[in-house]
């Protein structure tokens, strides 16, 4: 009998909550001191490149980037090791005006002993985002 890797299970719960627009459920998946880096480093979503730290900043990240949009995940491969999972694939975001943005990348989720997400790091390149008009 096999059980699903805790980080992979947490990543699936996270993606499911985002796709269903279940903000409170999504926030509950994170430890109080969790960090989201999406994308990793300095970007238009994180001008300082420090990540979004703690539930208040993670909630604000949702409000700016997830809440107003429809998000769909397409995981091509998933590799679990230690307390982390690296999912490769694409995320397609449909904005309120109907425009879509698709990013391909590697999305790394790390959990603590309680199975709470402590880190979500998204590796994707801004200049490779595919945009399409409504």
In short:
The chain has three helices and seven strands; from the N terminus they run ααββαβββββ. The chain has 134 residues and is of the alpha+beta class.
Structural features, described:
The chain has 134 residues and is of the alpha+beta class. The protein has one domain: Nuclear Transport Factor 2, Chain: A (Roll). 25% of the residues lie in helices and 41% in strands. It is built from 3 helices and 7 strands, in the order H-H-E-E-H-E-E-E-E-E. Strands 1, 2, 3, 4, 5, 6 and 7 form a 7-stranded mixed beta sheet that branches.
CATH secondary-structure class: Alpha Beta
Mean pLDDT: 96
Fraction of residues in helices? 25-40%
Domain module count: 1
As an assembly, this protein is single chain
State the shape. Answer: globular
- Give the CATH topology: Nuclear Transport Factor 2, Chain: A
Give the end-to-end Cα distance, rounded to a whole number of Å.
Answer: 47 Å
Largest beta-sheet characterization: 7 strands, mixed
CATH architecture: Roll
H/I helix tally:
3
List the helices and strands and how they pair.
Layout: H1 6-20, H2 23-28, E1 30-37, E2 52-53, H3 54-66, E3 70-81, E4 84-94, E5 100-111, E6 117-123, E7 130-132
Parallel strand pairs: 1-6
Antiparallel strand pairs: 1-2, 3-4, 4-5, 5-6, 5-7
Task: Provide the descriptors you would attach to this structure in a database record.
134 residues; alpha+beta; Nuclear Transport Factor 2, Chain: A; seven-stranded mixed beta sheet
């Amino acid at each position: 009998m096999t059980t699903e890797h805790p980080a992979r299970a947490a990543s699936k719960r996270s993606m499911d909550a985002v796709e269903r627009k279940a903000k409170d459920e999504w926030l509950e998946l994170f430890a109080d001191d969790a960090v989201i880096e999406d994308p990793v480093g300095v970007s238009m979503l994180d001008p300082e490149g420090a990540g979004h730290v703690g539930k208040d900043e993670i909630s604000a990240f949702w409000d700016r980037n997830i809440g107003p949009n429809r998000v769909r995940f397409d995981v091509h491969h998933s590799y679990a090791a230690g307390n982390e999972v690296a999912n490769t694939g694409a995320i397609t975001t449909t904005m309120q005006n109907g425009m879509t943005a698709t990013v391909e990348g590697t999305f790394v989720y790390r959990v603590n002993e309680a199975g709470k997400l402590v880190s979500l790091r998204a590796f994707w390149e801004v200049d490779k985002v595919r945009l399409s008009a409504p």
